[in-house]
Amino acid sequence: MRVLVVEDEQLLADAVATGLRREAMAVDVVYDGAAALERIAVNDYDVVVLDRDLPLVHGDDVCRKIVELGMPTRVLMLTASGDVSDRVEGLEIGADDYLPKPFAFSELIARVRALGRRTTVALPPVLERAGIKLDPNRREVFRDGKEIQLAPKEFAVLEVLLRSEGAVVSAEQLLEKAWDENTDPFTNVVRVTVMTLRRKLGEPAVIVTVPGSGYRI
User: Fold this and answer.
1) Which whole number is the average pLDDT over 203-208?
2) Please, what are the domains in the chain?
3) Which CDD domains match (predicted)?
4) For 81-120, what is each residue's pLDDT tens digit?
5) What is the pLDDT of residue 94?
């Protein structure tokens, strides 16, 4: 899952990003509304965690732009105000969910994951295919009943492949969904991660390479 965190309190923004990355999400961070508009113009995000009171461009205007562009991106709006009228106003301009500060990080994670599931065709919370069972909420992976320990990027790649339901996923798509914008697109990080993931999942291999196209399960 690719997430953009937009928050002008830099310590909070960085803390949220770090926590989301630990949950195997690819996360970009910006600290004002103008930078947010630049990012959404060039990157496809599943979820934007958007502070409402932003410098340069207000969070409301960022949200309106996402809606105007017809993007499938879901918006989780954050605000220091817990007033009901503020929450209603935020939802009316296009936010998909609303979370007042201060918040429990576990709730933020749950809301981001729930919104991420709504950016694509509805799938069950636990993904299963070819003997593999992946639970994004518990961060657990099993193959034929045996638990497998994966690094965050391995987990993220496996989740993207399972969510594709047998369709081929290109290396570029994996890079887009599982890594943030600081990753060099010309590295072989995707190939290396897939090789390691194959080894950990064991035999017979379930990740198939489609020459010239990508990978599928």
Assistant:
1) 92
2) 2-117 (3.40.50.2300), 127-216 (1.10.10.10)
3) REC_OmpR_CusR-like, trans_reg_C
4) 666 666 667 577 888 998 988 899 999 999 999 898 776 5
5) 84
